[in-house]
């Protein structure tokens, strides 16, 4: 657990492969740690998450929205974004929203969280 820009962020060390994994982690992070956001590396989310046609990213993101928990993807996804216009568009729009953020590192995530206050 870290506090970034006054926001409690649970930095996960757990992989999320299914909607059920996401729900369990959301519940654990919120009730055990009081987290407002959960941060994952791209590797923890896996390739399928970034292949938008699979629907996994939308399904997992929807769970975070339903449970009012922020989802942060922290790490380099530049090669994935360069290879997929739909993914690039989604990342750009997500970073303008309130529930899903993409950042290179925790410093950038801190800046993005500050911008929301």
From TrEMBL:
InterPro entries: DUF4180
UniProt domain DUF4180: residue ranges: 10-113
A matching Pfam family: DUF4180
Protein name, as recorded: Uncharacterized protein DUF4180
Organism: Kribbella rubisoli
Organism lineage: Bacteria, Bacillati, Actinomycetota, Actinomycetes, Propionibacteriales
